[in-house]
Amino acid sequence: YSILIARVWRVYSLVSPLVQSSRSQPLVFHLFDRLVAWDECCEPSGIDAGPPLRRQINDVHMLRLMAFVSFPSLLFLLSNSSYKNENIVIYDEAKTVGQVVCNNFESAEQAVALLIIFLYHIFLVVCAYHASELPSFLNETQLIFRASWTNLLFSTLCGMVIILNSGPNNSPTVTYFFYSVAVVFMSLNTPLHLMMPKCRLIWSGEVVQVSNLLVEDRRRRSRKNSFGSEVSSVTYGDSRCASFQGASFAGNATTPRASGDGSVRSDQEGSKSEEKSTKVVFARNHRKRNRRLRPLLVSDIKPVPREMLAKLLDTQQIVNYVSQRSINGKLISRSDWQKLKIRGAAFGLHCENLKFSWEGRPLSNARAETHDDGDDEKLAVSFGDLKARSEYISNGPDDSHDIENLNHRNTGEKKLFSW
Is 121 a domain residue? Predict the structure, then answer.
């Protein structure tokens, strides 16, 4: 149990800063940090030193935590070793049949041992519950819950058999057998539940990339926290944003839609003769007015910002997938191409907010602006800009045009896809 508890703490401490926006951690894991770094708490090289993305948990920290968790069991074993397990003889009511039993079964020490095992189960379940927000492969909450419930059920059944079999008229072999089976089962059930899926994965030869796990977890979280909670209204062709409308696509009118994973998609509708603005205004209720998009400060001596790291991992997944299929000579579906285009464009928009610490001025935020209209702050995003910036990322800037001129290259340009 001490190994499993230390393992859950280590995985949570290293992975949770990548998938959780909040830097706070549960009290039990904070207590573990203090226990394993008791001699480093006043030094800058402690376990909490530096950004959470660069935390280091070495083998010494793991051994310390396992020692602290195992201390109650070791103390109980040492105290019990000095106790003399005297043999006593019990008889039936007629005192004609007797049986020699160990005094341990009649003492309170047996109850203390069972209580310690039960508390270890509870402690492991609490740690697993706090780590339930980790990616699916690293999240062992369900496995630990299943193993704990199985141990509790099996030990209860064995205990009932032992109680029913107690007495001088019953065979002591049955009691000893079920007691041994219960101990062996509880000792092996939990490790097998947790390690067998990993062993099967290793035996299969499949390569597991942690970045893919984090991307999938980010996507799952973004679907839960959809834009619907932040967007109060979506207006198409609003006259109030006419001054910000760029060139519209020729052909079928499109209806923009914001998806949960941060990307922007469009559904075709209408006829070719109909032209419609591709502007969408997200009206948000904020107290601040004229708030500019916060630039991301990138430094060569600090870790990558969390928002930038999430976009990098999200874009890396589709790029690696398309590249791997191309290298293997496999065809790439339309949806994968569209996904690559959209995520690449979204990553380009994100890069425009980058500000390097070694430069004197930040990069231009291009066409992303904020405007104040009463109590609502409205963010105008041009989907024409999104398409043009996607080409800018793929082909690089033209010699005769800078990035600002990319916004006017929507009309008359070559189609990207054959369909």
Answer: yes
